[in-house]
Structures are given as structure tokens and as C-alpha cells.
Amino acid sequence: xxxxxxxxxxxxxxxxxxxxxxxxxxxxxxxxxxxxxxxxxxxxxxxxxxxxxxxxxxxxxxxxxxxxxxxxxxxxxxxxxxxxxxxxxxxxxxxxxxxxxxxxxxxxxxxxxxxxxxxxxxxxxxxxxxxxxxxxxxxxxxxxxxxxxxxxxxxxxxxxxxxxxxxxxxxxxxxxxxxxxxxxxxxxxxxxxxxxxxxxxxxxxxxxxxxxxxxxxxxxxxxxxxxxxxxxxxxxxxxxxxxxxxxxxxxxxxxxxxxxxxxxxxxxxxxxxxxxxxxxxxxxxxxxxxxxxxxxxxxxxxxxxxxxxxxxxxxxxxxxxxxxxxxxxxxxxxxxxxxxxxxxxxxxxxxxxxxxxxxxxxxxxxxxxxxxxxxxxxxxxxxxxxxxxxxxxxxxxxxxxxxxxxxxxxxxxxxxxxxxxxxxxxxxxxxxxxxxxxxxxxxxxxxxxxxxxxxxxxxxxxxxxxxxxxxxxxxxxxxxxxxxxxxxxxxxxxxxxxxxxxxxxxxxxxxxxxxxxxxxxxxxxxxxxxxxxxxxxxxxxxxxxxxxxxxxxxxxxxxxxxxxxxxxxxxxxxxxxxxxxxxxxxxxxxxxxxxxxxxxxxxxxxxxxxxxxxxxxxxxxxxxxxxxxxxxxxxxxxxxxxxxxxxxxxxxxxxxxxxxxxxxxxxxxxxxxxxxxxxxxxxxxxxxxxxxxxxxxxxxxxxxxxxxxxxxxxxxxxxxxxxxxxxxxxxxxxxxxxxxxxxxxxxxxxxxxxxxxxxxx
Length: 761
Prior knowledge:
It contains 10 helices and 33 strands. The strands form 10 sheets. A 5-stranded antiparallel sheet has the order 3-31-5-25-26, with no helix packed on it. A 5-stranded antiparallel sheet has the order 12-11-10-13-14, with no helix packed on it. Helix 2 (45-98) runs antiparallel to helix 8 (668-721). The chain starts with 8 loop residues before the first helix and ends with a helix.
């Protein structure tokens, strides 16, 4: 090779070697300093791409494991709450079994029911308040959200739901409501009460009644005109002396004995037997209802035509009623009347005026316990107070005599006549009778069980509770009003305002039967209690002092029967058919995925009160309701890629969702029915806990698998991207030696031009 001063190829070659070795040394030093084989795409472009994908997977797997662990924590929170619920349901079941103890009274079971109510409230509270990082877990919101166009339907979220807008069309084959009946309310020994009757549309109105008739200064405002002679309708007799035995014609209608305040009662008694259309013997005595004076017994014969022989010659001897009270001109007893010895009849006869005003007609009462008062024909403003003496006869034929002070206020004259029925021992009570006067409320020891205020709780099948108080001063009308208010206002069991007959229906939910009309109202003196709802929701349970409940004697005379709902579900927008079913427990299942729908059957039925009964009829045309479902399911991402998720949504677990909102243990029968429902609730909780437990176990395995996968991916990514330190160290040493050698050679090569210069010297 020639020597050159201008160009030094040897030095250039040596410099290239130095640069090459230096570059490699720099990369080796960088790799050793970072520990990575690939520090930039230039190091290994394809390797970098694979490494980055593996890194994405590794970081995703790492976060997925964290997600799975959080999901386990969330499920543990939910499962812990469900365990608490299960314990409470178990306790309620224990109380239901305990309520079957034969030694327990109704009040004892009421104490059990207090705990049941508290436990149900706590179950609902736990369902609504259990949350994880503010996310509700057990009220259904963690699975789906819903709204409806009407209160007549309610969604119960069971799990992950298919969201959408649904149209529900339904009609009903109405079932039955529960109907309850009380004891026959009768006056106790020594009690006196009253009833007020009018003659229909043109009534005589009684106002300002202050207290019972047995009390002094009872105020009665009478409006009306003089009435005609009463018809010959008689009741209140015993044996053969009954309504068919007497006629009005035999009484002295024009006699001064029957005018003014000189009204009277006649007590008849058979002396010996009489055959039909035969002769007979009677005795009778008369009481002046103004003075209270009672005549001696008078004996008379009755002929085959029913006339009292020589009746006009029989004088009472009473002041104000000195004339005969019977007429021999007409038959007092019907010819076909037959009686036996000792049969009795009590008849009251009242003048056409309650005071000293003129009048010729008389009023003949159906029994001796009826006092007829007819207002004067003038509008004279006058107040009259006088003592009225009354007579009452019980079914055994015993006649009782008593007295009371009556104040009559004359007012506006209207057409009609009113009657005040004076009630005595054994008589069926009227709505004006106080509870303290009822025979049922006096125990065998003679103690009035309402001497202290008593409270009754009413548990309804819809899960609501009402309370009413009873006092001895309450009248039967007061009790009727209290029960009605409890049903309508506290228990929400009345007809709503969408029903055109709502007022009539609600006014007859509780009715004291004074005039039997057939159906449920066939028995006089009883309370009929029912609601305007159908099926088990209409069941009522009365809880209170055993003596009070025994006095009321409320029993079920008609069992509830659930309605059959025909339900069709379509897409609200497209009309596409989704499903249909006939349900008998008001709950549509397995038609809308993940959601049960509770439907109020009364919304598809009309209710009216007809002939003493609540009548439920199907409405014309199907009812419609709309339900909006929004998916709000809880999912956990347990993988590094899209779609690798687990659904951990939990359905609604409260008393409504489990179907135990309406249970009670207040009676033996209710407690027995509750046991089965509680068993089903326990199964539902156990199933939800089992799913949660299975998911927790699954997630544990998921975490293990995620960690294993991540470990293998880390190893693969390490092989691609991480630096082999041993090899790099060897390369470093070699590159350092080469750099030193190359540098030395470059120094030698740089000396070559100086060699050429030496030749020039």
C-alpha cells in the first residue's frame, strides 16, 4: 500500500472499527443499565410488538385479579346480609310454631306478633340499606331498574333482566273477599236502650239525642204530623199469642183512654188452652205509661170469633184511663188463633198526641217495648218534658216495667211518623246502644270488660296493621265507624275513587244489621265486616284482650278465593308478542326475563254493594299497564379482554320479594299458614346465598387462573424483552477490549502520514 499524506485509508478503516465497536458498546451499556434487551423498536421491531401485546395482557390480568377480589368482597357483604336475613326468617318461623302453643291467649300471640313485625321491618331495612361502595345489593337495583304507568302493578327484580318497554293487558275472573260476622249483640240484664225508626221517604226526624233512654232528660226533637191508626201487625208474643193472634180492631180507638199522654200497655196472658176458632180464657192488666200505675189483673172470656166477652164493661180503674181499653164490638183475637196456657202478648197503645193537644187516632205498638210519638200539627215552638213509663217483654215471656224522662221539642212540621223502640234485657241492640249495655261485654263475674279502655289490632292480608280503641261509652254506631275508618284509612282496603260505587261500597264495609236484607245481612244484631279487595289480601285478623274478642265473636263466614288473571305481554313499541299466562296468586312469573310482576286484581274488577253482599264483576275490556325495565346488572371484568365478565347481580330480597309481607302469627290458623310461606322464603334466601357462595368459589379459582396466566405471560414477555445479563456482560468485556484495541490501532494508523513525511526529509 502506498504511503499518502492527503488520505489515510488505514486510519479511516481503524476509525470505522472504533465507531462500530463503540456503538455496540453503547447499546450493551444501555441494555445493562436498563436490564432490557429491547429498549427501542430498532432493537427488535417484531419483538417489541409482541412484548407490548403481552404487557397489555399482563396488566389486564393483574387488574382482573383485583376486580375478582373486589367482587368476592362484594359478594361476601351481600352473603353476610343474607345470612342475617335467614336468621330473622328462622326466628319468625320459630315464633309461628310457638304461636301454636295451646296455652297461649290471643294477647300472648299479639306479643309474638310484635316481634314478627319488628323482624319484618328489619328484613326490609337490611334489603334496602345493604350496599358496597354505595351500590345497593339486595333491593333489586343492582340488577335492574323499573318504572310503571300505574300503581296497579309492581315489578319484583329476580336477577339480570332484559330491558325494554312492555305492555301488559289483563282481565280478571274475580275471586272472593273474606267476610266476617260478629256475635248477635243483645242487651244485658237490667239494661235499657232505644232505637229510632221512621216511615220511609217522608220521615219523622229525631235530633239532639243526648244519651240513652235510661238516662234522665233525654232530648228528642220530633218533627211530624198526626198519624193514622196503626196497622194490625203484632210481634213480641210467646207461644200461640203471636202476630197472627190479635187485630187492631178490638181496641177502643175513640176512647178518651187512648188520647193525650194517657197511653198505656196491655199485658195479655192465656189462662188454659184454646184451640183454633174455639173459646178461651185470658187475663190482662194495663199500665198507664204516663203515671206508671198498673191495674189489677182482669179476667175475661174469648168467644170463637175472638171477641172479648163483655169487654166494654171491664174498666181499668187507672187514673186517666178510667174507661175500658177493649171493645166487644170487634174481635181482639183472630178466630183461628190457638194458644196454650201461659202464652203471653204485650201491646202498647199511644194517643195521637204526646201532649194535651186534641187528636182522635191512636198508635198501637207491635210490642210493649215500642213508644210511638207523633208531633203536633202546628208549628208552635214548645218544649214538653214528662216521664214515660215503658214495658218490655223478653222471649221467655217475662215482662219488665221501667221509666225515663223524655223532653219533646216541637219543630218544623213534615209528613210522617217516627217511633222510638225502647229496648230491654235480651233485646237485640240498636246502633244507639252503648257497648257497656251489651250482655256480651259483662263476664260471668258480672264485671264490665270495657270498664277500662281496650285496644284491638287488625292485621290485614296486605301486610298492613290498624288499631282501634273500645270504650264502654262507645255506641254500636261508634264501633261501626271506627272499624270502617280502620279498613279504609289505615288498611287501604276500601274501594278507590276510580270506582263509581266507592262511597256505597265503603259505607257498607262494616255494617251493623238492624233491618235484615238477606245475603250477608240476613241476621239482625250482627256486624258484617269485609273489604273491597279480593283473595288472601282481604283476610283480617283481630287481636286483643281475649274477653273482648270473645264478646265480639268475629268469625269468618266466607273464605277468600284468589282471582284468575289472564295476562298478555307485548313490546310496547312494536306490538311483538312476548308471552302470556293465567295467574291465580296475582304474580306473573317467567314471562319477562328476570322480573316478576305483581298485579292488583281489583284494578280489573268493579265492586258494588247489592242486596247485602259485595259483588265483584269483571270490567268491560282489558286493563292496560306499561312497564319500563332498564338493565342495571352488576358485572365483574375477570379477564384481560372484552367479554370476559361474570354477572353477580342479586334479585330483590325483602318481605315483598319473598312473599312474607302479609304473614302474621296472631291466631293459630294464621301462624300455621305462615310456616309454609316462611319455608319458601328460606329456600329463596338459601338459593341466593348458594349462588353467591358458588360465585365466590368461582372467583377464587378465577384469581388463581389469572395469576397463573399472568405468570406465564410475564415469563414469555421476559424472554422477549429482558436482557441476558451474563451474555451482555461477556459482550461488554469483549467490546471494551475491542474498543481499546481499535483505539490503539487508530492511534497507530494516525501515525502513517508522519512516516511519509519522514521519507521527504
